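pipeline/complex-builder :: batch 7 item 3
reading input block
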Amino acid sequence: MYKFILLTFSLLFAFGLSAQTDKAKPTNSDEDAFFIKDIYNKALTDGRSYDWLMYLTKEIGGRLSGSPEAAAAVEYTYQMLDSMNMDKVWLQPCIVPHWIRGEKEQCRMISQRMGTVDLTCIALGNSIGTGPSGVSGEVVEVMSLDEAEALGKAGKLKGKIVFYNRPFDQTQVNTMAAYGGAVGQRVYGPTTGAKYGAVGALVRSMTNRTDDIPHTGSTVYKDGHEIPAVALSTIDSDVLTEALKAEKSVRVYFKTDCKMLEPKMSYNVIGEIKGSEKPEEIILVSGHLDSWDIGTGAHDDGAGCVHAMDVIHIMNQLGYKPKRTIRCVLYMNEENGTAGAKAYRDSSNVRKEYHLAALESDRGGFTPRGFTFDGHEDVFRPKFKQIIEWLPLLEPYGLDFKKGGSGADVSYLKDQKGILIGFLPDSQRYFDYHHT
Amino acid sequence: MYKFILLTFSLLFAFGLSAQTDKAKPTNSDEDAFFIKDIYNKALTDGRSYDWLMYLTKEIGGRLSGSPEAAAAVEYTYQMLDSMNMDKVWLQPCIVPHWIRGEKEQCRMISQRMGTVDLTCIALGNSIGTGPSGVSGEVVEVMSLDEAEALGKAGKLKGKIVFYNRPFDQTQVNTMAAYGGAVGQRVYGPTTGAKYGAVGALVRSMTNRTDDIPHTGSTVYKDGHEIPAVALSTIDSDVLTEALKAEKSVRVYFKTDCKMLEPKMSYNVIGEIKGSEKPEEIILVSGHLDSWDIGTGAHDDGAGCVHAMDVIHIMNQLGYKPKRTIRCVLYMNEENGTAGAKAYRDSSNVRKEYHLAALESDRGGFTPRGFTFDGHEDVFRPKFKQIIEWLPLLEPYGLDFKKGGSGADVSYLKDQKGILIGFLPDSQRYFDYHHT
């Protein structure tokens, strides 16, 4: 159970925020400390996260937006929240992109020196397919979007397959920072290649590991510039770059069957406990239901969903009646569109809601290390100053508070000027599993 | 590579201590911070830990004291240290116990209600065997050594099989503390039972998990009170306790083939770089070579050995010449006797050595969380006060300094009145693997 102690932190945060605003000045009292201990003990001995996660990942599996599995996850989590004695549980509609992978991808390097070598690849999410004949072209390797732009302007990408091969910076202890430094080539690399006439794009997989497992993830086309795009495993990215060093011209052939279908109706799953004193102030805990299709979506983001759900379960177990409204939101479509987050924001703004705090868990289920905080520039500084005063209550559990991004979904609530919070688990092994 | 950044902390510590003692007052200067960054970067991109660990665990495997595998580990690590441009590399002899497991254990519960049920068990290290006919007896369950003492004094253990079933306290976020709260029954439970006439001992496995994998570990007999002892898996411990609740009398039969043979000669493996200015002050980095036989000994304590070895490798890579003597010690026989640690201490005391700092890594290879510090009561307080001033240099890497135990081997050096240090990695999953 102990991995899921993090869910209590969300809950704690809800309590903390309440306490903070209600009292004349912050008190990190013994009473608070004992209450936190109660939450911890309950989560460590009586949490339901692992059972739920087992169902989401092993019974349902990968939950790509628009898929039957995503629909099953909506139904399952709705039923679970509905069994938890909440004031209201509902489905909030959103229109999601419906991208499908189709048949298994093929990729081969054709070299004069080495002959034909199979490369392990996987189509990037949202990518167009190649059609049944595939694409073939000479490979041009680049290490950045800037380099691709420069080569493109010089006419050197026309008819070519552009190969984005920037690795993770292994000196980054925070692997999220290494991801941040490399992921731009996956998101905007293919469309940049397309703009200059490339016929296909290969992207080095986003991982710290050197292995033969390719990692998918979203790519975004701009201004109608679309070419088929795949991620190569890191081992085969190294194979290709070595071939390119030894030989002037190396070709790659690849074939993908993926396509974007008509958008589908899907849902955010939401449950709410009305606050007893200030129901108009909302504290939101969240994860996202959708995942990529090729794994089971345990770390991204089944873990985040069960964290948020267990906050409600543990409140029930402790018999706690919140002063403010607690809302558990399981967002749809974080991975390739954030349609759920936009629908939630739009609905919330129409109703003139105010989220005092919105917390997202979307960095996996490893050992809790703390929380990161973000917010609108008009209000962030004093709010964070206030929050940091509670840190001594959580330090005994090895947690830290930092400024930093919150989550892709909750960040849409920034204009409501509450505090945005991201749960921060250990990141060392996250990219061994991410999107794969 | 990033899991092994911890090795640099050892190195950093060596540097830190030097800096501290050499300067008029502590300075956490930019220069120090840059140097730490250099160490980190080198460890993250050019460490050798994983390759060495692969060899120790996959080529050699479990390394129980006195086994051929332990001898192979001595030879392998000697060769590795000897290739690293040290001033001196040597083998330090020690006489180790030679316990062997023999044939696979058998254990069965014989119940009137449930019939005969196989239980998954494993002999405890140092245990005597049952002989070919095994032992059989009614089971008496106890939750503590005190309870066993009380029942024993009342004559209720005579002819019985005593079953120590205290679980880990799951509310302990620090799993090492949960282990500390339960392990006494494994170490002294069997001998306590023997003292009062029990014929065998069962001990609940030392783990947070509920699974069917038994965990071994050392048991210690006192005053000649010896009975055969096995660990039961946590699932089968629960099966047995449920049977005992439903039925007055439940018997267990078990058979083990383990035995203690004649002691064997073995070795600590030691390498040294002489200090350029104060060679008489030794900074020791260490792990232990031996492991239990049933796994590959990766976390306990292959990781610790390669951490210590990589400190030397990285010093070489950085071209650093230490002012004080740096000694890498790979201890033998931590698991069931600490014969290597005693031999090292005796030799060191005869030579009137002084260990300014002695660091052991023996808590696994998970994400680094910090260090714990211990020392002789005459000197500890001011030393720790001095050390804590360096913490800001390491906080950017998510590390913390705490008072606490160092390591079973280096703690034998306490009387030299240096500082004793234990590396502290994340503990959440350690007892999933420990001794199994």
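note: The interface with chain B takes residues 1-3, 5, 40-41, 44-45, 170-171, 173, 175, 208, 367, 369, 397-398, 400, 426, 428 of chain A (CB under 8 Å).
queue -> next item
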